[in-house]
Amino acid sequence: MAGLSIDAKAKVETPSHFQCPVSMEIMSDPVMIQTGHTYDRPSIQRWLEQGHKTCPVTGQRLRHLELTPNFALRTAIQQFATEHGITLSDRQLTSVTEKAVVNSVNGGEPSTSLNEGSNTIGHTVLEGHEEIVWAVEATPSHLFSASADKSIRVWDTATRRCLHVLEEHTRPVLSLAVSHRHGKLFSGSYDCSIRVWDMRTFRRVKALHGHTDAVRSLAVAGDKLFSGSYDATLRAYDINTLKPLKVLEGHTGPVRTLTILGTSLFSGSYDKTVRVWNTETLESVAVLEGHTDAVRALAASPVEDLKYVFSGSDDSRVRVWDASTFQCVRVFEGHEDNVRVLTADSDFLYSGSWDKTIRVWDMRSLECVHVLEGHVEAVLALTVMDGHLISGSYDTTVRFWSTDTFNCVGKYEGHDDAVRVLTSTGEDADCVYSGSYDGSIGFWSKPVPGGNTLANAGSTATRE
Which PANTHER family does this entry report, sorted A to Z (predicted)? Predict the structure, then answer.
């Protein structure tokens, strides 16, 4: 019996309003549907996933399928359970399905845990979202994924369980940002709004309006939130009061990407420029020109004495900007197609392109030192972790590259469509997360030290 032992059930009469009308079991995660009736989340989700679009109790057709947590009832049930020694169900609260992961390094064998004899969970791909995953952000304890299905999912990074589904946006969710200091999660959407979520309760705190087109990028600097939109503007908000501060105007095309270095905010646009704004005064500082096509990617150097910001463009080039003088100090050439993504660690900048390659640029000499080949479609996503560069591609694979040898030391198949986004918690991270066009989320750890590489299977690192 889910949520209640037979002995306890025989001794305690559960109030009828604590029971789910579908399962008739005591509820562990009560949620309300549009009609106002409350159900246990797993039961009502199963009902909806079977194709029903009606309220199980009334038969009334639902205008929308959003599920609203009934926190008051949950608290009452938890108090009742504690008082009577009842253990509530620990079953997964949201619907997810685990997919098979294959490690091509091991000849197509299923992927296993990295460190035998340890508690490390092996590579995992979980289905949950119904449409493309547009953004992922990670903290040490949680992963947040944003999707075209209008929802944000909250995953426990230790158990890899989906804990919450945040469903207030009315159109696809495109961007995410986390402020640890303020305990807030921000999400930007095609519905032109930014939603603010409390990271303790995962309840919506506020909706921020003002943009007239999709909110494509978000960034946090100090006590300020910045948003970049397809309406060609940026907006600044006070995170403490959640009040709008200023509209930053100047771009003549959609704002695609944001990055911050020191007190400077850099915004990349389809208008071919990068603009610089002071994060304290909110004034325009500079316009960086030189690209001949849309700017899709920005990255800031994490090295304190190297004040560089890098911009990647559809013109196939990467430009290096001195963040002190705002002058272009180098143009990286070599890619044969659009530069789609940039990421950096303490030693290198990495650029991923539609030409299927990744180029490795030395952060100090500003020279290309390796070209990583192996993906058979465009490289869409990059991130770094503990001695590795990780790449995701239209070819559906996630590849691990050693930053010592730049050999491909892991090629993982589990997603059924393009790997759109990757994230980690930084260079010291022990896990990487991916989001795919197929709506699935991947959890990846380091390949086994000393394992085979793919150097003889079409994955090579060549020196420039």
Answer: F-BOX_WD REPEAT-CONTAINING PROTEIN 7 (PTHR19849:SF1), PHOSPHOLIPASE A-2-ACTIVATING PROTEIN (PTHR19849)
